[in-house]
Fold each of these.
Amino acid sequence: MRIAMIGAGYVGLVSGACFADFGHEVCCIDTDQGKIDALVKGQIPIFEPGLEDLVADNVRGGRLTFGTDLQEAVRSASAVFIAVGTPSRRGDGHADLSYVYQAARDIAGAMHGYTVVVTKSTVPVGTGDEVERIIRETRPDADYAVVSNPEFLREGAAISDFKRPDRIVIGTEDGRAQAVMAELYRPLYLNQAPLVVTSRRTAELTKYAANAFLATKITFINEMADLCEKVGADVQDVARGIGLDKRIGPKFLHAGPGYGGSCFPKDTLALIKTAQDHASPVRLVETVASVNDQRKRAMSRKIIAACGGSVRGKTVALLGLTFKPNTDDLRDAPSLAIVTALQDAGARVRAYDPEGMEAARDLLPDVEFAPDPYACAHDASALVIVTEWDVFRALDLGRLKHLLLEPVIVDLRNVYDPRELERTGFRYVSVGRPLIS
Ligand code: NAD
């Protein structure tokens, strides 16, 4: 089957490469000429484990191409996926749908024969209706269906998530479109990935409900962690104690500096706005979003306290800037709020991240970047683990102690064992675990 993938970002590029790997013919289109030039040269513009090889294999096999000419790609496609960004709109927090609507107009002008237009971007309930209307208005003669097929992949594990999803959600009541979608995903449901076929509006809302629920789970355990610190309990054991209950489940119960990334913050906000517009407020999600917002800055207070109450004139070393490991994505990362708050308090911030420093240079101009974790720690008054990259899990503690001005480690991801750090002579502060000394 021929597919046009509009938007070659984290979702479009991964989905496009995976569909090509299933045997479909995929053309990924992006308006960013630089991105397309890089892809044509075999360079992958994002960091995602396994993606470079997957793209190279499928380009070599002739199943995956890249370009900026949407017209040509759409004309020959049976399915056109919209995978453009839907960031928060400045000022009000609604999803900014201008890229989706522009893509819809461009697609409408180029469609030829029966075409299934699939919204893969995360979009508020009713967006599919508007996409359908835009296409009808632009091309009254067109034969098409608009389907919602939200994407649930996680950056850092995107390929395996796409190829072995917990479920595939398909929102359309059009029988012809359902058949096309079933054919596209056939390799997956042969692997028994459950297919949830439902209405378009239900599919659109399902994506927001999933993200809001996960954000709630994270925020719940974060508040439990704060309580643990006050009452001398251990949040790791609380998480295990509740997570083994199958009704709760062990995932997304890891206390930390608050959720970030390109999805949870903007999607919870967009859901809140949709719900308010429909006079059906989601108060629980409103609270989750506000608790999480405050938490990121609160982490800087934890760091300042670990430094004896002031960081003015001191250097604080941060390990990890991306919102999670195995990605180069810094969108809404907790590190951004932490860095700003530390700088506001008079600290000099030095940072190291295995993949995020290039993007960070633009976002955080006053941060000094180090070439490795040890150079980062040199003469710093505290070392802070912000993102749990594997390379930070087995640092040479003796060497670090020697390099740091003060033996202080603030571990916002609970990577280390407090007893071991204590033995090595560190003042160690983590999240929701009792202080030993
Ligand atoms: P991204 O910013 O990485 O990529 C979007 C791409 O679309 C950009 O390269 C941009 O240049 C391109 N684009 C914009 N308008 C275009 C147009 N008219 N024609 C062609 N290309 C255009 O975004 P992303 O992270 O891939 O997210 C895409 C969507 O998927 C969002 O709605 C997001 O919420 C959703 N989503 C993201 C993730 C994730 O982990 N990143 C997971 C699930 C769902």
Note: Residues 233-429 form a domain with the Rossmann fold fold (CATH 3.40.50.720).
Amino acid sequence: VWRNCLDIIKDNVSLQSFKTWFEPIVPIRLKDSVLTIQVPSHFFYEWLEEHYIDLLKKVIKKEIGAEAKLEYSIIMDRNSNSKKAPYTVNLPTNDKKSLSNSPVSMPLNTEENHIKNPFIIPGLKKVSVDSNLNPTYSFDNFVEGDCNRLARSAGFAVANKPGGTAFNPLLIYGGVGLGKTHLAHAIGIGIKNQFPNKTVLYVSAEMFTRQFVDSIKNNTTNDFVNFYKLMDVLIVDDVQFFAGKEKTQDAFFYIFNHLHQTGKQIVLTSDKPPVEMKGVEQRLLSRFKWGLSADVQAPGLETRIAILQKKIYGNGLDLPEDVLEYLAYSINTNIREMEGALTSLIAQATLNKKSINIELAKKMIDKFVKNTAREISMDYIHKIVCDYFNLPIELLKSKTRKREVVQARQIAMFFAKKMTKWSLASIGAQCGGKDHATVLHACRTVNNLAETDKQFRGYLDDLEKKLAVN
Ligand code: ADP
Ligand code: MG
């Protein structure tokens, strides 16, 4: 029967189309007027439905009879395809588990389409797309702080109501290692947890670009675009990567419009705000700004400590508090670096079977951050001095003229002058708004006392050791 069908089809389509779209089809069975054909991929099926359905209908009715029906069976090629073409949709036919993991409804399956399309397509009820989400980057593992509050809560709102908030697209921007990728995944994970039927895809702009370029090479741009049009939620990380790539931007523009118009959620991240994205088309930039742009900034000390704590407890580890604090004080550039230092610290300790104490931590961390031109921070000096004299740190930054506070403040200034390249004015500003003369006076006072007072000298030596970088 299929041979006869093919003969008719051959006369009705170009040779090229016939070879591409009909030769690969394998007839599987004909039972009760239902013809089952096997097609190599989901796109293949979609393509047939879109371009050749009328022809197929006619031919099959002619060969089998008026009540003829067509059924597709799609080869499952999860493993072979996931590497080559990450945008391939897989249809898990036997795999119940992955079916329930991330099933999505095909548009074909809606009531409307059923009426329009007399063909039944069992087995096509669900397709699953690998969302590419990293489960460790969840909201639970994300520490909220002033630095990321807006971005986080907007992300949370989107996760609870994808496509249903004013934040579409949601653009999260900010410097390197400040949690953009983490948040992007968290949104995807949140949506998947609450709406398992939604098709969610996380993709880096780089990966998107690579897929697009491949699709041009392989003549499968239609597949590429159609795949992205299937998404309920599309998360694109680091869109600044699109800069200067016009063709990719065009494809993304088209996909963006389609998704946005159909109420699908779009989440974007970027290392800079839209106004600073050079090399990205204006029409795309203006769309980036349609929803909400929220920035993430470098976290303050408390947030840094909280992040380290979360990471440590999450891994079932424990660290002395002073080590943790030293880490958080020393590395304030970005979170990735701080985590890197923590990881190598733990690795060192495990390898050498040493327990992690502050000495080991200092050695490690200082080695770790040597290249990033680390400078001791005023916060850290304050902290060490206050701990030593048992004073609350707020007092040091206040205007109190209590003797012991004044002295501690002077000592902190003295060490700041000694251990950093900061100007007197800058040190004063960091010590409760004192002027440069006050700082100069402090340094002289401490020097004088050190020469005359042996006990005081001892304090300074202790403190210097505690503050020492090596
Ligand atoms: P970005 O994408 O902005 O460069 P990432 O999202 O990759 O940064 O974050 C770098 C690392 O820091 C990741 O391991 C991430 O889990 C961690 N991180 C960043 N922000 C937070 C946060 N607020 N809470 C917990 N971990 C965080
Ligand atoms: Mg990132």
Note: The chain has 23 helices and ten strands.
